[in-house]
Amino acid sequence: xxxxxxxAVDLAAERGDRRLFEHLDFTLSPxxxxxxxxxxxxxxxxxxxxxxxxxxxxxxxxxxxDEPVQSIDGGTGSCLGYLxxxxxxxxxxxxxxxxxxxxxxxxxxxxxxxxxxxxxxxGLAGYEDLPVRFLSQGQKRRVALAxxxxxxxxxLILDEPYAALDVQVIDVLxxxxxxxxxxxxxxxxxxxxxxxxxxxxxxLRLG
Amino acid sequence: MFxxxxxxxxxxxxxxxxxxxxxLTVVGFFVVVVALFPLGIGPDPEFLRxxxxxxxxxxxxxxxxxxxxxxxxxxxxxxxxxxMLLVPQPLGxxxxxxxxxxxxxxxxxxxxxxxxxxxxxxxxxxxxxxxMLALLLGTPILSLIGAIGxxxxxxxxxxxxxxxxxxLPLYAxxxxxxxxxxxxxxxxxxxxxxxxxxxxxxxxxxxxTPWATAAAVRIMLD
Amino acid sequence: xxERGIQWFRFTxxxxxxxxxxxxxxxxxxxxxxxxxxxxxxxxxxxxxDYQQGDSYRxxxxxxxxxxxxxxxxxxxxxxxxxxxxxxxxxxEIMAKAIAPTGALMTFxxxxxxxxxxxxxxxxxxxxxxxxxxxxxxxxxxxGYMALHAAIDDRQRASNASAVxxxxxxxxxxxxxxxxxxxxxxxxxxxxxxxxxxxxxTIMFVTLMIMVLAxxxxxxxxxxxxxxxxxxxRERNARWVQERLEDGRT
Lengths: 207, 222, 250
Fold this sequence. Notes:
The complex is a heterotrimer. Helix content of chain A is 29%, strand content 27%.
């Protein structure tokens, strides 16, 4: 899937006057997963936002292959998918509409069947046509994950993807992550839960 | 290239249709403000007619301004704005699309309802036509400039009031030209110059403001 | 880059700025006092009354310098803000923020003196004269800039966001000015304006220039002082601040 490395070089982040972290380096090769851990407020979310190109680092640079992420043609969104704390769903649209529109915006609209089977695999069969505001927190999270997985980006950046998910769905998500890695995808993830993932996993501890 | 923009436009319009009360509130505000003016200044038809261009324009301007807060804040709160930054499209174009949708939902209804209010304020037919023309050229400017203020106040406490302070001074030129156009027709003069300048301003705003708004969105989401 | 360029950038380092500004501020303050004293003496005592407006014209010695300063400082603020935003130079951000209150004050004085001058000249305190109206809108732009800066907690974000606003504002200032001017001619506004001092005598002109210089010196002194405080606040964790605090140099 991916043919390039994802690298962070001498990265630093600040919040207010406080340095969250500095001199952070890592290289992620295709098929690898990087789990970012650390206590609350140590800058995990800040790091993920910097990696996805949403925030500018206080120092350092993030590279996709040899290119700095900011200068990638078409923006960082062309190589990575990002799932932050908010689910980025429109409450008034149905699960399927949300996914289709997000796909349309990203330039790759998934087919109706692909959406249905993805939603079904995440245990949302029968909920496709319900406005998202009628879904529970965990179900909304699953819709957001379905949207992300359908966009099939080489690099996935996931901020607490397991939050609000029950055990069976965590299992489904785990196998989706493993499948992504086995297709030579890359993943950067933060989580509080311990979920054993079969693959080339690395750990990065902040703070 | 235009398909993603079209998807965004459709999304915003569908969302507006599913919650029509938002757009209707803006029109309602416009109508009520204009209806309050005669109560404040007296019912003399000739006097009302003289004040009508300014009253209608100020009311329209305030109505647009009130609606601005929602332009980005919903998308900001649920995280879709963040995802828009990752879309492989120039953010300026996405912003422009959103502003266009916003204008279709709020600006255009104001233009369409304005003749009704103009009749209440005793404007004549040719003046009403000019009013609609001026609003048609002017309300997009209001939305375009206002988007900068909406972006700059994303996530701030008291954002709505702050938008007013940031944006209303910038509304002076379209207000002068728009109300002036109707005034000119009322006094039997040509409104050609007003309309040309208003048109020029709209073109300028169309090209310049989306980038400022995009920069502001990026800064506020950084 | 040339050597001069490197020299110049030396002062963009906060510590160097802090020291240099500390040395310069007393000089500018002294110049301000001297020029104001001289200008006010010349303007109120030496200069003759105007044959048309009598003594009331003397308010131009305050009105004109403050009005010029108010307009110039807005442009300068926008330039600093743009430099800070585009090249991420911290000192430029600090300067932009430091200029705003002084610019607003100058604009306010210009409006106030304009209103005071209007009373004996037009018989009313406020006339919707084109220049006064533009100045009023300029004051609103300053207030908006400061309000936005104050409303955002994160310092970097506050600087960047208000920089965008300042740049939008500076593009709009000429548009606002010309549209207000146009509006005014259409509506047959007042025929004399504050700056219409007819056939200005040499002494009047010299006095005016002295007052303009005084306004400059005042602005420089106050802006530098405010920027200095801001530098200290932003860099309070930096080593150079600790060093200076230990030395007892403030």
